[in-house]
Design brief:
Shape of chain A: globular
CATH superfamily of the largest domain in chain A: Farnesyl Diphosphate Synthase
Strand order of the largest sheet of chain A: 1-2
Oligomer: homodimer
Helix content of chain A: over 70%
Largest sheet of chain A: 2 strands, antiparallel
Radius of gyration of chain A: 20 Å
Order of helices and strands of chain A: HHHHHEEHHHHHHHHHHHH
Number of domains of chain A: 2
């Protein structure tokens, strides 16, 4: 079973989201239009829209009212990706050139701001300022997460707490908000909305841990970027944190991972040492731990085909497929 | 009479805004706090807060409720400045180092996003989604303006229309929104809110034309950046557009202004030629034209000390002080 099957109950709505994404970038400036839609056209899993739609579907059948939110969530996510690619000077994303590479800094920064403002306009149309507050708050925390990641690069002393704070802000919060807001637009009770918020949070944590594992073990083809990108950029993720403590080669790892040159030159060796140390196995346990916590929230939600599906998704994310 | 005197009726409130600006940047990350407050500490005219407060004061005495809006408007403006300095790789602003120079791209882009999100949170607290829609819409247009400026750099074929569209988005819209939202939070009628929106728009146009003039004729000390920054960056403003048409040296001007190298090397000569051609005088007439249009909107507003003041400000902005 793959992610597409979990999203099957909202497949029709996801198609509408897909076409709405591009339609919502609506500027008379051709170059801004091209740059803003470039990343959309590159595709993506549309996780955030899918979660908003699935959360709502637990409580209502008709999802027309959820579509603009779903679009806004994906646009918010994309705005951060466009800015990330400027910051990291990335050349490729999702198997195609980045906006930054094709159009440069000025256009990329403005395109990111434009896309984010567009998503705000979409959410504002709901006339629910609580949704804007949640989104603004999340956006601030995402910025903080970026800074924490910056401060933590090449720092081999960072521990589990620092890592969890980073992935919370990088991934978990926006998935959490997607679930939360999707449910908020339905007659769900406060308790149910909170359960969905927590489900999304824990699932997002599991998802990012797994994503960080894949950076070690998946091929460039699967990733859409080179294997070991994190190590090359000095980003210390969970498998590395483990290896830095327990690898028989931890001394070399400390030395290499704190040097930008060594991280680039010895990336392949570092990957091997982290895997040999058991860093991947350890991280899989962490992913399973968070997936389990996500599943536990489902008990506060109505028992439907969708919630069962959400439980299966948690299992799927945290089970190794290598 | 200087700008401070025009703002005298809201001087006390502006002091509260000043201290609130820093208090509203509230992150546990020291480096983000420092970067975000750096620009605040450099000071500034606080035009946008002042306009929001003045517009409200025409209709109500107590401005406590307007303060968060005033703070949000200045933060929105600052967020664009922080990003601008990344884009332009600027070294100084308001007589001090830029965030970009002191902390680099990654922090600057995130600090800009953080500050903008903070301003959204402030506006969302009003529980008026129409205000968020206006702000989101304005933000999109500001992005478009940046792109138009980018596309127009070193392009000596740009005309008046292109210039007006650029300065509208760069300056006039946010001043317009400041006046509009300040009035919107009071019992002002729709007609009065619209009059304030238009007043702010035209005043903002006059203000930016004057600012573009000052880039030719004011000293580095007054500007906080070198005289002729626009010419050096290939930004074609109103005095230059005039000179490109009517200077006896227009051929050389076309040639030089379309070349980044010549713009840098011959900046002083270009400045002299534009001034000699009468570009400054022409631009002053444009500033006066917009100031007059601004003043004309005041007839739809109650006659108070404040509206008289706003009329005087329009005169002041468009009168040459060299």
């Amino acid at each position: 079973m793959g992610p597409n099957e979990f999203f099957a109950p909202v497949a029709d709505e996801l198609k509408i989201v897909e076409s709405s994404l591009e339609n919502n970038i609506n500027t008379t400036l051709a170059v801004l239009q091209d740059a803003s839609t470039h990343l959309i056209k590159a595709g993506g899993k549309r996780l955030r829209p899918a979660f908003a739609l699935l959360a709502a579907r637990v409580f209502v059948d008709e999802l027309e009212d959820i579509i603009p939110l779903a679009v806004a969530l994906e646009l918010t996510h994309m705005a951060t990706l466009v800015h990330d690619d400027v910051i990291d000077d990335s050349k490729t994303r999702r198997g195609t050139d980045t906006v930054k590479r094709l159009w440069g800094n000025r256009l990329s920064i403005n395109a990111g701001n434009f896309i984010f403002s567009r998503s705000l306009a979409l959410v504002a149309a709901y006339q629910r300022c609580d949704m804007i507050s949640i989104l603004a708050d999340t956006s601030m925390k995402i910025c903080e997460g970026e800074i924490i990641q910056m401060l933590s690069a090449y720092n081999t002393e960072v521990g589990l707490k620092n890592y969890l704070r980073r992935i919370e802000r990088k991934t978990a919060l926006l998935i959490s908000v997607s679930c939360q807001l999707g449910a908020l637009l339905t007659p769900a009770s406060n308790r149910e909305v909170t359960a969905f918020q927590k489900y999304g949070y824990y699932l997002g944590m599991a998802f990012q841990v797994t994503d960080d594992i894949l950076d070690f073990v998946a091929t460039e083809e699967v990733l859409g970027k080179p294997t070991g990108s994190d190590v090359r950029q000095g980003i210390i993720t969970l498998p590395t944190i483990y290896a830095l403590r327990f690898s028989p080669h931890r001394q070399e790892l400390h030395q290499w991972l704190s040097s930008p040159e060594e991280c680039t030159q010895r990336a392949d060796t570092i990957l091997d040492l982290v895997i040999d140390a058991g860093g991947i196995d350890y991280a899989y346990y962490a992913a399973q731990y968070y997936a389990e916590k996500a599943k536990r929230q489902l008990q506060f939600l109505p028992r439907t085909q969708i919630t069962e599906n959400l439980g299966n998704m948690a299992d799927f994310i945290s089970i190794r497929d290598y």
